[in-house]
Amino acid sequence: MRTFIIYSILGLLLSGCATVQKYGTTQNFARCGAADVATTAVGLSINNLRENNPVTRWIAVKLFGDSVLSSIPVAIGLYVATYFVLKKINEPRLTQAATILACGTAVKNAYIVATHAPAGAQ
User: Fold this and answer.
1) Which of 7, 21, 47, 113 has the fewest CB atoms found within 10 Å of its own CB?
2) CA separation, residue 44 to residues 10, 38, 85, 89, 108 (Å)
3) pLDDT score, position 51
4) Residue 64 to residues 42, 60, 69, 73, 85, Cα–Cα distance (Å)
5) Is 107 inside a domain boundary?
6) Separation of first and last alpha carbons in the chain
7) Angle at 44 between CA 119 and CA 47, to 5 degrees
8) Number of domains observed in the structure of the chain
9) Is 28's pLDDT higher than 70?
10) 109 inside domain
11) How many whole angstroms separate alpha carbon 38 and alpha carbon 13?
């Protein structure tokens, strides 16, 4: 059942990324950022994976120590800061690029969570 849910989320994320090129707005960036943080949290908590973004990991270790979920508040903070910068700059191409990166990261995270599910969790 969990595998079905994960692949459903993956499909929704992929279909959302197809519309990002046309609708690269700060709202879509926020949605993709939320999906990234959510899939990261699932991967870190269920599969005991680690944060692969070196900037996020470095800040998390400096602020919160080397706990498994320490990168989640840092990722949220970075996405919120980036959101406000994108909103202030109001450059559609930059917002589109950031949205594509955030959606792509969320899709990658969902794929990793789906393929690294613990034995018996499917």
Assistant:
1) 21
2) 17, 10, 28, 33, 14
3) 85
4) 19, 6, 9, 9, 25
5) yes
6) 6
7) 5
8) 1
9) yes
10) yes
11) 12
Tokens 């930059």 found at: 94
Among 14-18, 21-25, 79-83, name the one with the lowest average pLDDT: 14-18
Per DSSP, the residues of 67-122 read -TTTHHHHHHHHHHHHHHHHHHH--HHHHHHHHHHHHHHHHHHHHHHHHTPPTT--
Q: How many CA atoms lie within 13 A of 3 on its CB side?
A: 8
| pTM for this predicted structure | 0.77
- What is the residue range of 52's domain? 2-115
Cβ neighbors of 120 (< 8 A, separation 6 or more) are none
Q: Which residues of 84-96 are buried (b: 16+ CB within 10 A; e: fewer)?
A: eebeeeeeeeebb
| Interval 47-90: pLDDT, tens | 667 888 889 889 999 998 888 788 899 999 999 999 999 999 98
| Amino acid code (one letter) for 119 | A
User: What six digits make up the tokens of 31?
Assistant: 């949605």
Tell me whether residue 82 is in a domain.
Answer: yes
Residues 6+ apart with CB under 8 A from 59: 74, 78
